[in-house]
Design brief:
The structure is a single chain. By secondary structure, the protein is an alpha+beta fold. Among the domains are: 110 residues, no CATH class; 46 residues, no CATH class. Helices cover 18% and strands 26% of the residues. The chain has 4 helices and 13 strands. The chain has a 4-stranded antiparallel β-sheet with strand order 6-7-8-9, with no helix packed on it. Strands 1-4-5 form a 3-stranded antiparallel β-sheet. It has a two-stranded antiparallel sheet with strand order 2-3. The radius of gyration is 31 Å and the shape is globular. The two termini are 62 Å apart.
Amino acid sequence: MLTVIGFNCLLETFGELEAFSSVMGIERPRMNLIDLKQNGKVVETIDKDTPDNIMLQGRFKSGALVNYELRSAAQFPGEPGVRWTIHGDKGEILVTCPSGMFDINHEGVKIQFHDMSKDSAETIDLPSDSLADLKHPAQNVGRLYEAYAKGESDSYCDWKLALRRHELIEEMFQRGDGSKPFGEKASYVTKDGSSSGSSTGASSGSIQGSQAEVDADAQGSILADREVKPKEITREAGSGNTQTTVEALEAEGFGASSGKNDLSRNGGNRDLAS
């Protein structure tokens, strides 16, 4: 199941999306089922058919751009579960939290503001209320109950908003479930995988036909290398006659052979060293 708990915070802050593209996939197709009564013992391993890596790029109605990524995995050691940056023309805000669902459990959340006219960022403290001393997630649960009791419907998700969020999830799946190609096809890559900008009739100084065979199973393993013979570098001398590499170098004043070199050009002989 795709959760938009964290993403809902973006929508509550910036408003609804005007346009977006999404892509999703399954990085871990197998998952373990555990039995909490047996202290988390793995009792079965099953196939998974729901996405665990979801990315969305879009634009809010205000014109602000959004780049969102959600993955289902243990967070990198020492890194927060949530990292949210808000970029403006005069400054930026960084929100980090150990928990991935920081709108439920925001213990340890840190909010920093960077004024671009200064070299350092300042920490912004969250406002305190009568529930601030409760343990998490009781704090936000208590605030939700109070909002219900007071009729503050703008402080919680009602059925109408819940339906809209599920429509968003459905649209994200339709656009990024992999049944259709994501985005426009890259025109710079030809059918055989080589760059359309490459040329078999390479110009002077280029290397011809250099290409390694790569495993197509996304492992990036090189299976075999082909021998590459560099094309001999040629250049035009003042008379218009084509010279070999050695002649061209000696014409520039480099000593590329044991014979007598012309030292009258380009500041004298400059011996090559390998």
